[in-house]
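Reagents: none. Just compute today. Amino acid permease.
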Amino acid sequence: MNSLFRKKSITDMLKQSKQKSLNRSLSAFDLTLLGIGAIIGTGIFVLTGVVAAESAGPALILSFIMSGLACAFAAFCYAEFASTVPISGSVYTYTYATLGEIFAFLIGWDLMLEYLLATSAVATGWSAYFQSLLKGFGLELPAALSSAPGAGQGGLINLPAVVIILLITALLSKGVRESARVNNIMVFVKLAVIIAFIAAGIGYVKPENWQPFMPFGFEGVVTGAATVFFAYIGFDAVATAAEEVKRPQRDVPTGIVASLAICTILYIIVSLVLTGMVPFTKLNVADPVSFALSFVGQDRLAGFISVGAITGITTVLLVMLYAQVRISYAMSRDGLLPKGLAKVHTKFQTPFKNTWLTGFIGAGIAGFVDLTTLAHLVNMGTLAAFTLISIAVIVMRKTHPNLERSFKVPFVPVLPAISALFCLYLMSSLPGITWIAFFIWIGIGLLVYFGYARKNSKLNEGNDSSINQQVS
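Predicted 3D structure written out:
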């Protein structure tokens, strides 16, 4: 029974963080843009309209604030851990050091599903925007190649979704520095697009469109918060990059907090302008930002927004796929997944085989499975991770009070406890089918843990040899 709760030594983790198996090339600026690249995408370009029309109305702004608060509390917890134990794995690694192996494996298993489904789901959204852009030039893909089977459109494969994931995979396999450069460029493009929307749209805002402000009541605001939470997924991916940062103790907390703060402010402004331009009842569309501009006669700018949406969604794909690989890389290095996933390419200094395996799986899901119903499952996984890291901070303060921390969560244990309760509250508002699917996935994870991970764990060998990196 004790083996289920065995923990990784903080000392061994710190030794591991000083090795240079992965290339340390990222700065605080890169991390901030990495976070923005992950956060701003499907949430702002797609979910805003649906949530306003079906759940929150003009009170969409309150839904974003509520979700933003839940993320802010969790972000502080991530920042403390990332500055203290700067290695790959994010909440998986932090849980391993505080709550024990069984919890670490299950949250890692949970995060793998979260990031993989998010990658595939976002690729599906990318495909829709890309096909819309092609139609603007008079081009159209055959129905058989434009959607997944079962999507109701007569498709056999969503080819654009498959292609974009494989292109992102190729980029990530070549190196994190190159990937960061591409991400930075695309982030500047989508920030310019969002600022252009705000500047153009603010002149068309009609205060009467904000009435009634809360048409679905406070319950609608909470439901909206649980849904738009998907829009914030990604800032935690910054923590997975800790082992590839030049000065992780300082730069990782900066990247996490700065990216979340910038995106929250932009979300609030965009939701105010959007619901002020168009009556919320008309916003139940797949491209609410472009639709709002077309609604007020700004068709040319609406086309520009579509290009920005494609760029924005591409950066989300890049960061989600990156985070997925780094989680499975860390678990493999600890012996909880097959060791081949932890092999680092001698030239590119990336988990090359792991990256391509993940890319092919993600492309297969995006190409052949309709994922529109799985956004809630992604939210569930993220909220579970946020709950655990909030608890882990409290445990770490008790078990390692003298550990050097470059960043500290204020008001421990009160703030982390509020964070955990807040996340559990949002989880409770998700549909019952989401809970069933979540427990099924966790059940599969338990089978994998007891069938493979427990006996192959590095901690099961009597000494933690996980700091010895295999290189191919």
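The radius of gyration is 22 Å.
Action item: order primers for follow-up constructs.
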